[in-house]
Amino acid sequence: MVSRTDTLVDSRVGSRPLFSVGDAVYTWGDVVARARAAGELAAIEGEVRAGLAALRRTEPEQEDVEAVARAFRYERGLLAGDELDAWFESRGLTAAEWHEYLSRVLAREAVPDVDGSAEDPVPHVWAEGICSGVFEAIAHKLALLVAVAPDAPAERRDEEYEAFCRAAATDAAIEREIESNRLQWIRLRYDVVAFADEDTAGEAALCVRADGEPLADVAARIGADVEQRDDWLEDVEPELASRFFAAEERSLVGPVAADEGSLLAFVHAKTPPALEDEDVRARAAGALAQRAAERAVNERVTWLEPL
Question: How many CB atoms lie within 10 A of CB 77?
Fold first, then answer.
């Protein structure tokens, strides 16, 4: 049975080819089908319902809509008017629907947890899925699944992908991956405090280093928040990562200038990656599977419409 959402998609983008794998061509309709099977379509409908209900309680200021519109265009490189128009055309959208989407986003933020069960989401599902980036993300995931298992039926693609990932992450490959990432995968447990200015951070550092005060106590005295983190070295912001590389356990790092202020960090633990660590093995297996899947996509998928 054809749903109203499927009818809407057909009216917007029809059977427009999106990508191909071999002789098989996939469309936005296939993306919506994948979204439905993965539970993503229901989540999009929920966002639309909440946005529509919120708009009945509040109306975003025009200047706020214009601000999020500018951010949207900047993030996607749609700076020129003709670039934005081409983006709308390729996705079967209108400028009005885009602005309605932005208004729903702002309304949801202003009125959270609103009951939207009585709202009809279908007329807005396509715009919500496209503008939020969810449908594009699902399109890339679908391309990956098909590239890995081009002959598998739709209901078995996830199972085939999991088998593909397991095959890529052999014990020998995992051991090599860990060895090649011995520096990047150092595990760090630390506290970090962002101070408003470098002078305040410098005074706080002196209290820790010279007087032996805990960083948390110094931060509490001046009303600064302490954030406890557990990160891999490669995931730490660059400003701190280079300092952490040379730091010892139970030592203070900083002040370091960053976007959020002048940072001080106290390193509690610094653990090199080990083959016996299940988190490290999982990270290695994930990296191996991702590269193998990317190779399959590059070799087998032809994008017929840029995303």
Answer: 9
Q: Which of 190, 175, 192 is nearest to 231 (CA)?
A: 190
| Residue 159 resides in a domain | no
**Is the residue at 163 inside a domain?**
no
How many domains, the chain? 2
Same-domain status, 28 and 141: yes
Distances (CA, A) of 226 to 190, 194, 250, 251: 10, 8, 16, 16
Is the distance from CB of 72 to CB of 101 less than 8 angstroms?
no
pLDDT digits (tens, 9 = 90+) for 142-201: 999 999 999 999 899 999 999 999 999 999 999 999 999 988 898 999 888 887 778 787
Residue 159 CB partners (closer than 8 Å, separation 6+): 152
Query: What would the pLDDT profile of 105-143 be if each residue is shown by its tens digit?
Result: 999 999 988 888 888 888 999 999 999 999 999 999 999
Task: Tell whether pTM > 0.85.
Answer: no
Q: Which tens digit of pLDDT belongs to each residue from 261-303?
A: 778 888 888 989 999 999 999 999 999 999 999 999 999 999 9
154 secondary structure, DSSP code? G
- The CATH number assigned to the domain holding 245 equals 3.10.50.40
Is 258 within the bounds of a domain? Answer: yes
Q: Is residue 171 part of a domain?
A: no
Identity of residue 145: L
Tokens standing for residue 28: 């936005």
